[in-house]
Amino acid sequence: MNILIWHVHGSWLTSFVQGPHTYLVPVTPDRGPDGLGRARTWDWPASVQERTPAELRDAGIDLVVLQRPHEIALTHEWTGRRPGRDVPAVYVEHNSPHETPVDTRHTLADRSDIPVVHVTHFNRLMWDNGRAPTSVIEHGIIDPGPQWTGTEPRAAVVVNEPVRRARTTGTDLLPAFAATVPLDVFGMRTQGLADHLGLTGAQCRTFDLPQDELHRAMAHRRVYLHPVRWTSLGLSLLEAMFLGMPVVALGTTEVREAVPPGAGVVSNRPEVLTDALRHFAADHAHAEHSGRLAREAARARYGVQRFLEDWDRLMKEVTR
User: Fold this and answer.
1) CA dihedral in degrees (153, 157, 158, 164; nearest 10)?
2) Which alpha helices (H) appear in 17-129, and where do they start and end?
3) Distance between CA atoms of residues 90 and 88, nearest Å
4) CB 154 within 8 A of CB 137
5) Helix (H, G, I), strand (E, B) or coil at 155
6) Which residues are CB-neighbours of 69 under 8 A, at least 6 positions away?
7) Residue among 190, 220, 216, 215 nearest 205 (CA)
8) pTM for the whole thing?
9) What angle do CA 277, 282, 288 make, to 5 degrees?
10) 3-state secondary structure 195-242
11) Which of 89, 157, 185, 227 could form a disulfide with 64 if both were Cys (CB 3.0 to 4.6 A apart)?
12) In this structure, are residues 241 and 263 in contact, taking their beta carbons and an 8 Å threshold?
């Protein structure tokens, strides 16, 4: 099939485009949010092809995969076709509801012609989906291999914009954790985080690395810390498990589903998480054992092949 899809979430899309289709990704001269084109920091196959808005007007499109509300109007403007009416479409909901956990109505709640595909069962449960058909296709991760060494007794944290996102990403919890185990925080716009939190440079180091370097750097850290209060299931958490890292995480949203007993410690009690960090940092063998279980669990549930097969079944149904 020819699938029109915008480059919005690079990590998720990297797995999605591993399928057997042709993926038409809009590109604009400024390569802005609606026209990023092909990724520059991920390895995408040649089946991902850039198309300008003018080229999309005459392009053969079998399915539109929407990810943001305004893409419905943008598809009509650029292609002359209305998603769900003139061309089959699905809407991928990457996020947990933001305005209120239980009363946020989905943008497609009043339509039945565009199925909503949630990335976690928690998300589907919490959104008010109205009469929109819904399904869940859980994340699929391209296996980076068992890279964990744990040579540095530090905790890795992956989060973008931790200062701006603040309590949502658990940034306020980091000082208590850093008092127990030094942190290495990876992500975009992490500069100045230590000063913002009143921590020393040794307690909290920050890095902004491309994907291939990120995995290697994470794997040297002893444990992965996931302090996020409210978000969809973070791909970085699953990637850490694939690397063979033990996990210490808040037990919010879908985390308890993803991290089974033995693969780490999941709790909503900061003191329990602090004790777990201390234990992993002090005991390399314990961290190695838990990380091995984490990797086994992640491979069994979040493999990219299962993800692609789930998507193929859905796309055949929608375009039938």
Assistant:
1) -150
2) 53-56, 71-79, 121-126
3) 7
4) no
5) strand
6) 107
7) 190
8) 0.94
9) 80
10) HHHCCCCCCEEEECCCHHHHHHHHHHEEEEEECCCCCCCCHHHHHHHH
11) 89
12) yes
Half-sphere exposure of 277 (CA within 13 A, CB side): 28
Cβ contact 59:27 at 8 Å: no
Q: Evaluate the CA torsion angle 49, 117, 19, 41 in order and state its sign.
A: positive
What does the DSSP 8-state code read for residue 180? Answer: T
Kindly tell me if the per-residue pLDDT of 211 is higher than 90: no
Nearest to 231 by CA among 304, 122, 78: 122
pLDDT digits (tens, 9 = 90+) for 15-58: 999 999 999 999 999 999 999 999 988 889 999 999 999 999 99
* pLDDT tens by residue, 150-163: 999 999 999 999 99
**What sections of the chain are H helices per DSSP?**
10-16, 53-56, 71-79, 121-126, 162-165, 174-178, 193-197, 211-220, 235-243, 255-258, 270-282, 284-301, 304-319
Block residue for tokens 């914009």: 161
